[in-house]
Amino acid sequence: MKTTFLDFEQPIAELENKIEELRFVQDDSAVDISAEIGHLEKKSQELTKTIYGKLTATQISQVARHPQRPYTLDYIKALCTDFEELHGDRTYADDAAIVGGLARFNGQSVMVIGHQKGRDTKDRQFRNFGMPRPEGYRKALRLMKLAEKFGLPVLTFVDTPGAYPGIGAEERGQSEAIGRNLFEMAKLRVPVVTTVIGEGGSGGALAIAVGDVVMMLQYSTYSVISPEGCASILWKTAEKAPEAAEAMGITAGRLKTLGLIDKVINEPLGGAHRNYPQMMASMKKAIADALKGLQEKSVDELLDARFERLMGYGKYKEVSVA
Amino acid sequence: MSWLQKLLPPKIKSREPGTKSAVPEGLWHKCSACGSVLYRTDLENNLDVCPKCNFHNRISARRRLDLMLDAEGRFEIGAEVRPVDILKFKAVKRYGDQLESFKESTGEDDALVVMQGAIHSVPVVVAVFEYGFVNGSMGSVVGERFVRGVQAAIENGVPFICVAASGGARMQEGLTSLMQMAKTSAILTKLADKRLPFISLLTDPTMGGVSASFAFLGDVVIGEPGALIGFAGPRVIEQTVRETLPEGFQRAEFLLEKGAIDMVVDRREMRLQIAQLLTLLAKQPAVSA
């Protein structure tokens, strides 16, 4: 698969193209130019390191939305065995923007749930660009309750621009579906490990992200509103999205500093899409570590800790009032 | 000057634009729904509901509490919790400055006022959103006051009522504001454990992160007539689906029809209605109006 380069990666793209050309030439050339190729490859790596060493929030959000980025089903396929997808909310429909089911993680039965984006135009439409409707959240809740019934840990993967803003979604209670999940997840009697793998878009993300451990990939984002949305409200123009992205603090590093997430999982050089196997290996270790810590706790300890964590969100000052 | 203006005697010439009227400001109110010109005192005596067309005007948090609670035995909860500018957020305006200016314009220091009191002698804790304060948006202070309100309800073994009027999460606090959705929903699990009622009253407007957290978690969910209630704003939906929205879309009556709320209640009946629900749930005799 040919790598798609983002606009700020153009210098890398040019080098990579050159390497590609040389490789092509080398195939039917008597002269050995492998040394030259090696040199350029090294240069490309260094360039990538430099560029990725100082990404802005906007650039990170571009990587988070990269069309070749691994999606939930890629992680499930790589991290789990025996995945049995379960469908439908039993009330209205099966929402393809959220996938979930039973699987084995390191041999242990788990419930996996995540937003799913599509790879090509048709698939993207089928997955509704990873924007769930109420039935998606209700399916997720059904699977979580199923996990609770059988004592299975829940792994969730977050990757959505947000819950779908549509007429039908509103009519079927988008708000209620999200709120219900927040309520139920706060007291779900099994461990929940959440990882933001791409876009953590607002309430639509949070609705499957109330976890005991919340992790984010290095180049993923998590925000209360999209930078474009924030900019168009507070700056009256979507063009100020880069400023909004910086101001809100949507990147993993910043959110870790603010104490809103537990762990940042490092990505391969140039982002998760540049090296799937390496990404999967780091992810597997991170989830295994998180699960191990949680499974040492009793259910009551687990729930108390989750509740304390939820109550701890927020920064304010206290003054004495007469 | 046109020939008509020349003809008119000076006294009935229209006033220059921008000149002040001799009538004191605020004596009259023109209904934004039906256009009737109302004497403000009449409107206030009617709980800010238009006597001609029943349009429910937005009211401040304090006024709502005044209309809802018995005069005796009120005290405020969580007033000690005050906002901080976590991110040193600056868009066109600085968030820190905005907090100051909204404090001046509303008299509140954040968008939620919580009070313990009674409705027709039924003891309750009521949390009310102040829409005038940063669009009633939910940030850290709103979340914490909500939690303290629910905790007070649990400690006193009384029902909790929330009157929502909010544009959603407060983006000037970044992701912390999103987490208030999880926080407020989580504390309600404790209220539910104690089998204490949660009545959620949704007023104009209840949107976004407030709508998508505790708003629909009420044991009984009530809408005020005409209130706009929904997850995504109508403009966003229109831009996404590129269709015209159905008549009355996201209004309280529409939600009732779709099965999203239990009832639409006129503000003038609200006190009695809520007291009635609470006594029914508590297996107590009816209150007398």
UniProtKB/TrEMBL annotation, chain A:
It catalyses: N(6)-carboxybiotinyl-L-lysyl-[protein] + acetyl-CoA = N(6)-biotinyl-L-lysyl-[protein] + malonyl-CoA. It comes from the Bacteria. Residues 39-293 form the CoA carboxyltransferase C-terminal domain. InterPro entries: Acetyl_CoA_COase_a_su, ClpP/crotonase-like_dom_sf, COA_CT_C. Its EC number is 2.1.3.15. Keywords: ATP-binding, Cytoplasm, Fatty acid biosynthesis, Fatty acid metabolism, Lipid biosynthesis, Lipid metabolism, Nucleotide-binding, Transferase. It is an enzyme of class 2 (transferase). Pathway: Lipid metabolism; malonyl-CoA biosynthesis; malonyl-CoA from acetyl-CoA: step 1/1. Its main location: cytoplasm. Gene3D superfamilies: 2-enoyl-CoA Hydratase, Chain A, domain 1. Belongs to the AccA family. Component of the acetyl coenzyme A carboxylase (ACC) complex. First, biotin carboxylase catalyzes the carboxylation of biotin on its carrier protein (BCCP) and then the CO(2) group is transferred by the carboxyltransferase to acetyl-CoA to form malonyl-CoA. This is Acetyl-coenzyme A carboxylase carboxyl transferase subunit alpha. It comes from Chitiniphilus shinanonensis. The lineage of its organism: Bacteria, Pseudomonadati, Pseudomonadota, Betaproteobacteria, Neisseriales.
TrEMBL record, chain B:
It is an enzyme of class 2 (transferase). Residues 1-23 are annotated as: Disordered. Pathway: Lipid metabolism; malonyl-CoA biosynthesis; malonyl-CoA from acetyl-CoA: step 1/1. Pfam families: Carboxyl_trans, Zn_ribbon_ACC. The keyword Translocase does not apply. A zinc finger (C4-type) spans 31-53. Its EC number is 2.1.3.15. It is found in: Cytoplasm. Belongs to the AccD/PCCB family. InterPro entries: AcCoA_carboxyl_beta (IPR034733), Acetyl_CoA_COase_Trfase_b_su (IPR000438), ClpP/crotonase-like_dom_sf (IPR029045), COA_CT_N (IPR011762), Znf-ACC (IPR041010). Keywords: ATP-binding, Cytoplasm, Fatty acid biosynthesis, Fatty acid metabolism, Lipid biosynthesis, Lipid metabolism, Metal-binding, Nucleotide-binding, Transferase, Zinc, Zinc-finger. Acetyl-CoA carboxylase is a heterohexamer composed of biotin carboxyl carrier protein (AccB), biotin carboxylase (AccC) and two subunits each of ACCase subunit alpha (AccA) and ACCase subunit beta (AccD). This is Acetyl-coenzyme A carboxylase carboxyl transferase subunit beta. Residues 27-289 form the CoA carboxyltransferase N-terminal domain. PROSITE patterns: COA_CT_NTER. Component of the acetyl coenzyme A carboxylase (ACC) complex. Biotin carboxylase (BC) catalyzes the carboxylation of biotin on its carrier protein (BCCP) and then the CO(2) group is transferred by the transcarboxylase to acetyl-CoA to form malonyl-CoA. Binds 1 zinc ion per subunit. Its cofactor is Zn(2+). Zn(2+) binds at C31, C34, C50, C53. It catalyses: N(6)-carboxybiotinyl-L-lysyl-[protein] + acetyl-CoA = N(6)-biotinyl-L-lysyl-[protein] + malonyl-CoA. One of its GO terms (molecular function) is transferase activity.
